[in-house]
Amino acid sequence: MLSFDSRLTEALSLGNTTAFYVLKLYYNDESAFIGVSDKHRVDGSDIYYGLVASWGQLHQGLDFFGFTTSTGNTTVKLINTETCYKGGRFSDQFSTNNFANRKWELFLNAEGLSTYDTAARMVGSGIISGDIGYDQKGTTFRLLDFGEYEKTTGTTYYGKQLPSNIVDSSTYPNAPEKNINKPIPMAYGDFYEKTDIGTIPTGNFDRFKTFYNSAFPAIITDKFDIGEAAVEAYVDNETMHTLDSENVYYYKDGNYATITGTVDATTNNPRIEFSGSRCKAYFPLSSSGFTTSGTGTHINEANLSNGDFGDSSKTTIGVTDGNNVTINYGIEPVTKLGEFISAKALAKFGTVSATPTGLSFLKIGGQAFSSVSTNDEKEATLSFTSNEQSAWDFTGGIALLLNSNIDAGAFTIQISEMGMVVEFDIDNIETYKTQELHERRVKDYIKERGGGYGYDITYRTITVSTTKTILYPSEIDYVYLSGKGRKYGAWVDADSRDNGYDENDLIENPVYIIEDILRTELGLTSSEIDYATFDSAGNTTDGHIGLIYNDSADDVKFAFSQHKFIDSKDLINKLCGQALSWVFIGGDGKFKIKTLKRGADSDYSSADKTVDYNDIQLKSISRTPLNSVRNDITVNYNHDYGQDQSLSQVNTTDSTSAGTSVSGYNQTLELVLDAGGILDSTTATQLADAYKAIFKDRKVIIKFDCLRPKYLDLEIGDIIQFSSWDTKVKLYGTALSEANDYFMITDIGKKLNGCSIEVIKVQ
C-alpha cells in the first residue's frame, strides 16, 4: 500500500475532496521536464500547464496463479491547439525535446495542498512510450512501466539480460572459441558438503561429488593462463561464500570426476585454475554382487555404499576365533571416462569391536593390513588385466577378507562406506609449449695469477630460457565445482534492518536472492527498493515465505546457478513462481515483493486497509475458472548442470478436490513445476504441498468500484477486509465474515474520483 502523507490521507477521506493529478514528462537527458495538469497550476518554481484533456486509468494487474505482474500503465491526452503551449502547439516541442523512452512521474494531490511532487504523493512512474501520436487538436502519450524499457543511460532498468558478464574476446583473448560471448554464471546457495550423512572423512572421501549437494558450472575463460600455467574457469563475477580447490570436477557421460591438478580457488575473484589432465572418479560398490564364504557373519549389506557415514545400521562383518570370512562386493558397470591409470579400493570403517591380535589381519582386494581400528580409513591398490583396464571392465568385484588365527579372538568391523576410485587421464588432451625465462646464479672459477695452484670463485647471475610443456583438456566448455554461492552485502544490515541475516552470510532465502539481483545486477539502491516488504516476506522470525512453505523461513533454501542468458524480469518471475510471490514496481517507483500466505490457521491476522461497503458499488461475485484448479502437483527439482536436467521429483494429490463428491471437481488436474532453484527433497515437498493448498480449490472473486478517492493508496498484493457488508449478499451461500475473511487485490484501475478493484479471497 502506498504511504501517503497525513495531509493527503486526511484530505482524501473527506467526502467533498477534489483530487487532481500533476504529471511530469521528462525529456532529453531527463534533467528537465514539462509539467501538465487538468488546469494551470503553480507550485513554487514548478509550473504545471493546464493541457490535460483526459486522464486514462492507471492500472496494476497481478496474475494470482502465475505469480507475474503488470504495473503502472496508463495514457494521457493533451490539448494540442494552435496556441495552447507557449504560443504554439505542444507537438512543436518534438523538434527539440525527445520524450520517447524518457521518464514520467504522476502525483496525486488535493485542493488546498502544496508541494505537489513529494515522494509521499507519487502514484505512478515509468517510461514514456515512443508511440506518440497527435493531430491539430490533441497529443496522446502512452505511459508505460519500467519493466521492459531502457533508461537514457542505455542500460535496462528491469528487462536486463542476465548474467551481465560475458566471456568477451577482448577481456579473455585465450578463451575457447565456443565459449566466446557465453555468460559467466551467477551462483546462489549451498552446493557444498551434505549435512545429513554424518561426518565426511577428510582423508579421501571428501573430494568426490557423491558426498556433496551438487556442483556449480564454471565456464572456461582461459584455456591456458601463462602466469599460472593452468586452465582458468569462472563460477561467478561476485564474491563467493566458499570455494574449495579440492572439489573441482570434470563431467562426462553422467559422471563427475575430481580434477587433481587444481591450482587456485579465489573467493574475491571467484575462479578456479587447474593444470594437467589427471582425474579421479569414485564409484560406490554394489550390494547386487554380494557373496560370502568362510566362517563369520554379515548384516545389512544393502547399506554398504549408501553415502551415509552416520548410518547406525551400516554393514557389519564378523569373524569367529580361528576362522576367516571373505566378502565379495560387486561393482556396477561403469562408463569409460578416459585413459586408465590406476584403481584403488577406498574403505571407511566405523566401530571395530576389539583390536585383533597376533596374526589377525584385514585384506582388501589382495592388499593386507596388519590391523584395523575404529574409524580407520583404508586405501588398497587393485589389480586388473590390461584388457580390463582398456575397457574399464571392473565387474569382477572386490574381495574383503577378515582373518583371525587360533586364539586371536573373534571381532567385528562396521563398514561405513566402501567404493572404488579410478584414476585416469582425460581424452582429447592438447599440449601447450611456452618459453620460460628465469634467473640462475652460477659460479665462475678464475685461476690465480703468478702460477699459484688455487682458484678464485666468483658468482654471477645469468638469464636462461627453457621450454615448458603443459597438458590441458581441449574439448570441455565447463568444469564443475562444489561450493557456496554469493554472500549478503552490507545492504542486508543497512537502514536499521533486522531480518535475521548479516553481511557475509550465504544468500539462500529466495526473497533475498531476488533483492540481491535487483541490487547487484540491476544496480538499484535502497531508495529504489521497498526493503520493508522484502523483510516482511523473508525475515527469519515470521517471514511470509515460512507461512506459505509451512516451515521456518530460514529453512526455505534455494541453490542454483544461472549459467544461461535470461531476461532479468523472467529470472525474477521464475523465482517468484517457486517462492509464491509477486515482485512489482509500486506507484511510488519502488520495487516491492508480496508473498502469499497459505491462508489457513489464521495466517492472515490483519489487513492493509478496510473497505466500507457503503463506499463501493458491487459489480460481481464469481469464482476462479475450473481450469485454474490443480489437485495433482509434481515438482521437479535437484537440477544437474552436467546433464542439464532435474534428477528428482515429488508428487502430492488431493483426493477431495479431485473426487466425485459434491465438494470435488470430478477431475484430476495436473500441474508440473520445474523448481530448478531447489536441491533438497524437504523444500521441494513443502513447495508441492503449498501449490496444492492454493490451487486445489476455486477461489471467490469480488469485483467492485470504489466511489471515493480515499482508496487510491491501495495497490496489487494488498490485503483488505470489508466492513458494513450487506448481510443479504452471501459468497456462494456462505455469509461473509468481516472479522475472518481476507482478500488480496489482484487488479486495480485508478481514476481521480475512485477506482475499480478485483480481489480474490485468500482466507
Overall helicity = under 10%
Distance between the termini: 19 Å
State the helix count. Answer: 8
Please give the domain count.
6
Structural class: mainly beta
State the low-pLDDT regions, or none.
Answer: 149-155, 432-439, 445-459
Mean pLDDT across the residues is 88
Could you provide a short overview of the structure?
With 763 residues, this protein is mostly beta strands. It has 8 helices and 46 strands. Strand 10 (133-134) and strand 11 (138-144) form a beta hairpin.
Protein architecture, described:
This protein is 9% helix and 42% strand. Strand 26 and strand 27 form a beta hairpin. The protein has a 17-stranded mixed beta sheet that branches. Strands 14, 15, 16, 17, 18, 19, 20, 22, 23, 25, 28, 30 and 33 form a 13-stranded antiparallel beta sheet that branches. It folds into six domains: 6-157, no CATH class; 196-428 and 474-485, no CATH class; 429-471, no CATH class; 487-595, no CATH class; 609-624 and 699-761, no CATH class; 626-695.
